Amino acid sequence: MAETLDPRRSKLKREFTEHRGYWSELWDAVLELSPDYFEAYTNLSSEPWKNGSLAPKVKEFVYIAIDAATTHLYNAGTRIHIANALRHGATRDELMEVLMIASVLGIHTMTDSLPIMTEVLAAAGKDPRLDQRTLSAEQQAIKEEFVKNRGFWPAVFEPILHFSPGFFKAYTDLSSAPWKLGALEPKVRELLYVAIDASTTHLYNAGTRTHMTNAVKYGATVEEIMEVLMLTSCIGVHTITESVPILMEELAKHEAAQAKEKAA
After folding, report:
1. 42 and 108 share a domain?
2. What is the rounded CA–CA span in Å between residue 153 and residue 166?
3. CA-to-CA distance for 213 and 201, rounded, in angstroms?
4. Which domain holds residue 114?
5. In angstroms, rounded to a whole number, what is the distance separating the alpha carbons of residues 177 and 190?
6. Claim to verify: residue 109 and residue 204 sit in the same structural domain
7. Does pTM surpass 0.90?
8. Are 187 and 215 in contact (CB under 8 A)?
């Protein structure tokens, strides 16, 4: 991008920085190629920042969680928003807790697949009959530990506990780690679970419902939940931030090749 911006682009850059609190070189080419798109995105992404429902560092925690989630792994965004969160006063433990929360997303392989497994077994005449199974003392202790650490019990965990108590015990320890660290308040933890489950890279509605319910139990307001969803819904812009640099590189190659042909 040219060092000197025209008046409109200069104004748009200033407005983005004022609303969002930062500027990244990721936006340079976007602003150069399409100020109309950049203005529209600025207006959209700035909406949750116009409200005071969540603290700025918590807004940044939402961005970190959805960028670092295994369904997205957008490292450029994770880096930007960790830096932003630190500027807003976030601590090392808070940031580590955000990452730990996001890291448990893989359990949805189990929660979505085990119901299918039980249906397949039933269709094959090998009905596991979960409703007739009784928890062993070990399994009951694991369940109680999960409830103690996490504060709830979803029915989707029943098959895991029945079929592989060892695995579920290990998952209980893993998923409880951020709750034992205690850097974030419970409401914020639950809102982060909402963000990673509701993200368009995951759309795990069962988890979204569970963690919204938990968040409300911990005092979350409709404004706070809406703010999390607005922040999360802007993830689509990463199509632009990842692809525009490629476009610029290929344009440069194409123009260089054309210039070479003309000179030949």
Report:
1. no
2. 17
3. 21
4. 100-231
5. 14
6. yes
7. yes
8. yes
Q: What's the pLDDT score for residue 2?
A: 47
φ and ψ of 147, to 5 deg: -60, -40
Is residue 123 situated within a structural domain? yes
Structural domain contains residue 260: no
Nearest to 160 by CA among 201, 120, 218, 111: 111
Provide DSSP, 183-203. Answer: -S-HHHHHHHHHHHHHSTTT-
Q: Are residues 18 and 118 located together in one domain of the fold?
A: no
Nearest to 229 by CA among 103, 54, 25: 54
Angle between helices 35-46 and 7-20 (to 10 degrees): 20
Using CA atoms in the order 173, 174, 177, 178, what is the torsion angle rounded to 10 degrees? -140
- In percent, the amount of the chain with pLDDT more than 90 equals 87
Q: Phi then psi for 184, rounded to 5 degrees? A: -110, 150
Tokens of 131: 């409703």
Q: Cα–Cα distance between 93 and 86 in angstroms, integer?
A: 11
> In this predicted structure, what is the pLDDT of residue 3?
63
**Is the domain of 36 the same as that of 141?**
no
Burial of 193 (0-12, 13-18, 19+ CB in 10 A): buried
Q: At what angle do helices 26-33 and 238-263 cross, to 10 degrees?
A: 70
Return the structure tokens found at 155.
């029915």
